[in-house]
Amino acid sequence: MSEDASSYPPIDPTNFDLIVLGTGLPESVIAAAASANGKTVLHLDPNPFYGSNYTSLSLQDLSSFLISHSAPPPSPPSAPSDGHDFTPAALAARPLFSHVEISSFAPDVLGEEHSRKFNVDLCGPRVLFCADKSIDLILKSGTSQYVEFKGVDASFVYNENGKLTSVPDSRAAIFKDKSLGLTEKNQLMRFFKLVQQHLEDDGEEGGENESGNSRISEQDLESPFVEFLNKMRLPPKIKSIILYAIAMADCDQDNVEVCEDVLKTKDGIDRLALYNSSVGRFPNALGAFLYPLYGHGELPQAFCRRAAVKGCIHVLRMPVIAVLMDKSTGHYKGVRLSSGQDLFSHQLILDPSFMVQLPLASSPPGLGSIKRRVARGICITKRSLRSETSNFLVVYPPRSLFPEQVTSIRALQIGSDLAVCPLGMFVIYFSTLCHDANQGEKLLNAAMDSLLTVPESAHPESSTTVHSENSAEEKPTVLWKALYIQELTMDHFESISSTPMPDGNLNYNNILHATLKLFQKMYPLEEVFPETASPENPEDDNEFSLES
After folding, report:
1. Which of the four pLDDT bands, split at 50, 70 and 90, describes residue 492?
2. Contact yes or no for 85/326 (Cβ under 8 A)
3. How sure is the predictor about 464, in pLDDT bands with cuts at 50, 70 and 90?
């Protein structure tokens, strides 16, 4: 904090139905949903900005945030009990980022003034499918009036030959795709036709049409998706596009022994259906994906604005130093601010970068357990990876970069037309799941090196020109680069719950599923964003703000 918290005026009232600490997307959705149901909500954040782990920041602020949230936090001071009927349990910061590497190769180009013109996502690469649940929630909640989107132009798959192959997202695209032979086009068309028929019949009572063979069998639906694709005799190239660029599988599906997340056929079909229904949902979005103007940090801000309309009180730059626990029952009662003020509520939601230091006897087993990690990378360039396209996705299937690559890697380039960087510059996000930092860094560095020239020194003009194998064009040179490892954690106990960290997926579906499940657990009798007759709560697709 830039000023002494004790100088802040006291918050009034002091009793709430819900206190939320952190303004990330899950916390902001819960605050908005609770406010929409008439709950009194106080929404606090120690940061001077909205978004927490889902924010978009300038290069300078992003660097500061990553470094400050990767160092082991100092031990919090023990708060006195003051003779009340509650005991303060210290609230400690938990470092969720590690192995942070930030390199600026062109400080003259990216000075402090220029650095402020960036809105860089902390949790990238991330997009929204046009037909996914997050869009439905944005429409239902009335949040769509506070955020604008633009379509992502294209998707590509990186193959073993170092070439980018476009992802055909419709029948017309399949026919136009020059990289596919006639046999491959026919195989892909037959497969999509089978999937379409299955989905249509699945929605009918009878389950089968007159021919009786359009449904995929239950045995196939429960089998690994890769086995079903092999059964359909799809060639490796087509199979790779379906598995990793449309169904977005994370790990090597052909290697079931080491794959930690084998995609079942029924789940693969559902993902194809989501992709298919996303293409063409909005007339001025060409492909399946959307990206918010000014970055993904706009999404939590939009839900915070929605919550404020319904009476939620927001206070930034206000750290919470302790959680108040009832002396006799051990249950949660309230929080203590760094200003010294005590506030009380029935329930508490915590950003996952905080943890309550409870006595060992009070801590549930497995609290704060780390499942996997996400390696994330960001590169700034002055030239697009593809001269004809500014905003696009690149998927690196397993083993496309080197034989030991067991997870897919995703890269997303975003240009200045989405208001995330100065004119003539581009932001490229990379991510992959990993078990440790060495694995994650090796994967992301290989992906970066395949498409970009990363200078060995801080003087790009002295670096040698690198040409890609598949093109006479030289690779764009990196001006600024960040690499970091993010933990995946989620805690919950009694009336205190911790929201999920940004996961390794492209969209927010799993995050929102966990968030809405948490809301229903807290308020089992309440509807998430109940229907209103108010014109300020549009649900029509036409009310969705989409830049052409």
Report:
1. low
2. yes
3. very low
Compute the distance between CA of residue 18 and CA of residue 39 in angstroms, rounded to an integer: 7
> What span, in angstroms and rounded, lies between the C-alpha atoms of 41 and 314?
9
DSSP string covering 131-153, please? TSHHHHHHHHHTGGGG--EEE--
Q: What is the pLDDT of residue 76?
A: 57
For the entire predicted model, the pTM comes to 0.90
- Write the DSSP symbol of residue 527: P
Cα–Cα distance measured from residue 337 to residue 92, given in angstroms and rounded to the nearest whole number = 13
The C-alpha angle with vertex 219 and arms to 208 and 254, in degrees rounded to 5, equals 125
Looking at the DSSP bridge assignments, the partners of residue 44 are 21, 315
Burial 84-115 (b: 16+ CB within 10 A, else e): eebbbbbbbbbebbbbbeeebbbeeebeeebb
pLDDT tens digits, one per residue of 230-256: 998 888 888 999 999 999 999 999 987
- Paired with 103 in beta bridges are 481
The pLDDT assigned to 201 comes to: 76
As given in the structure block, the two tokens for residue 533 are 């007759």
